[in-house]
């Protein structure tokens, strides 16, 4: 009987604890003693870093580090800079040795920390990058919802190879120069753009996105992005969403996108539009108050819209390339 009492007490004590591994040893740790990230911007497994010199807040003292080149972080958890739209892992070592190491992921939820060559091609700054990315991250977790029709409006992949003919010339130049794959006539994808477009296409497949239609501008960098993404839909070329270095539509890219959306069937599928900035700039009263004046729109980044039965559209937030990939990795348990 004495043996049974001891065993019973032991079971009760263990029930109030969870075991976490430290090295090769399992150490009982009370649930309320597990350290946490207490920064209010840490939600749904992502830390939204909305400024430079951002201090990570935690419930216990710790040291911080990261080997990612997109982030500058001190051992005290002060993020001096994080490249806009990129996600970087942060390794946390808790000073309480009973607790394990932790890795979290941080998004540069700004539009001011662009690296070259992107910085050279950046358009207007986002109206509120933090709000757009937070909304996009929330949408992504239930996207696509059943019985809804959507569009993904994507900026073509990274493209700093060459210069568009019209930038340095005042005359028309060779016929259809903007459609050319020749970097001496039109700007083309760079190596990172080729890699990211290919990866994004696989991410969309892994997430099971029902992409029914693909619409691209006439520029080769847009068409090449579609080709590398390798969706099952045959791309449709539409000059209404051309880059402004050669445009055939006098009303601007945003209104061109709206016109294209109103031509699509409401069929619970996804239309992928691959274009350029300033398709991300509203800047006028158009009857769509859900859109910010300027949405974040990095290379290989996007914003999501929902298309209602009456053909009106609703903005659902911005998603960078890194966010799409991170969400896929979470879903496939690759982290």
What portion of residues belong to β-strands?
Answer: 15-25%
Q: Specify the CATH class of the largest domain.
A: Alpha Beta
Mean pLDDT: 90
In whole angstroms, the N-to-C terminal distance is 48 Å
Number of helices, counting only DSSP H or I runs of 4 residues or more: 7
Number of strands: 16
Structural class: alpha/beta
Strand order of the largest sheet: 13-12-14-11-15-16
Radius of gyration: 24 Å
Question: What is the share of helical residues?
Answer: 10-25%
Major sheet description: 6 strands, mixed
Q: Segments where pLDDT lies below 50 for 5+ residues? A: 1-30
- SSE ordering: HEEEEEEEEEEHEHHEHEHEEEH
Tell me, briefly, the overall form: globular
**CATH architecture call of the largest domain:** 3-Layer(aba) Sandwich
Q: Quick one: CATH superfamily of the largest domain? A: Phosphoglycerate mutase-like
CATH-defined fold name of the largest domain? Rossmann fold
How many domain units? 2
Provide structural commentary.
The protein starts with a helix and ends with a helix. It is built from 7 helices and 16 strands. The chain has 2 domains: 90 residues, Immunoglobulin-like (Sandwich), CATH 2.60.40; 211 residues, Rossmann fold (3-Layer(aba) Sandwich), CATH 3.40.50.1240. 23% of the residues lie in helices and 24% in strands. Helix 4 packs across helix 5 and helix 4 packs parallel to helix 7. With 335 residues, the protein is an alpha/beta fold. A hairpin with a 5-residue loop joins strand 15 and strand 16. It is globular, with a radius of gyration of 24 Å. The N terminus is likely disordered.
